[in-house]
């Protein structure tokens, strides 16, 4: 039996909601899809990476269009979702350029956001039945 247009639209809306949840809370998309082990692993690992980056005095970059690399780093930081928003609201992530660990902290913050973007894509593929 063929899927109707309404079924496909409902499936697509569900997939996008899964993606929104996966972006907002690392691993939430997998948890909602019933992949508990993967979801918990992503939740713990990515959140710890982000927190570790803050602890190492990394910087949450602002979006500055005049400096493309800084803008790209800001987009990568935003990839982690709600932890990024919470850190921004609470005033964390100012960065300490003279700290020995500054670059390591930046790397952890950026990589956590980029890895969460891959996790969102994986959750989307699972919700669409591709995996």
What's the helical proportion of residues? 55-70%
Overall geometric form = elongated
Total number of beta strands: 0
Average residue pLDDT: 94
Q: Which residue ranges are poorly predicted, with pLDDT under 50 across at least 5 consecutive positions?
A: none
Termini gap: 21 Å
Which structural class fits the helix and strand makeup? mainly alpha
Share of β-strand residues: under 5%
Order of helices and strands: HHHHHH
Output the radius of gyration. Answer: 17 Å
Largest sheet: none
Number of H- or I-type helical stretches: 6
Write the layout of secondary structure elements.
Elements: H1 5-24, H2 28-32, H3 36-55, H4 68-78, H5 82-89, H6 102-127
Helix pairs in contact: 1-6, 3-6, 4-6
Describe this structure as you would to a colleague.
- The protein is an all-alpha fold and 131 residues long.
- 69% of the residues lie in helices and 0% in strands.
- The protein is built from six helices and no strands.
- Helix 1 (5-24) packs antiparallel against helix 6.
- The longest helix is centred in the last third of the chain and has 26 residues, at 102-127.
- The model has no long low-confidence stretch (mean pLDDT 94).
In short:
The chain contains 6 helices and no strands. It has 131 residues and is mostly helical.
């Amino acid at each position: 039996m063929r899927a109707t247009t309404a079924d496909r639209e409902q499936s697509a809306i569900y997939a996008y909601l899964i993606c929104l949840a996966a972006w907002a809370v690392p691993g939430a998309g997998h948890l909602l899809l019933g992949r508990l082990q993967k979801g918990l692993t992503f939740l713990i690992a990515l959140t710890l990476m982000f927190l570790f980056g803050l602890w190492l005095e990394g910087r949450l970059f602002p979006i500055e269009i005049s400096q493309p690399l800084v803008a790209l780093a800001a987009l990568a930081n935003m990839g982690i979702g709600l932890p990024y928003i919470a850190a921004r609201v609470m005033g964390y992530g100012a960065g300490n350029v003279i700290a020995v660990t500054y670059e390591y902290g930046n790397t952890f913050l950026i990589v956590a956001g980029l890895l969460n973007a891959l996790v969102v894509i994986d959750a989307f593929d699972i919700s669409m039945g591709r995996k």
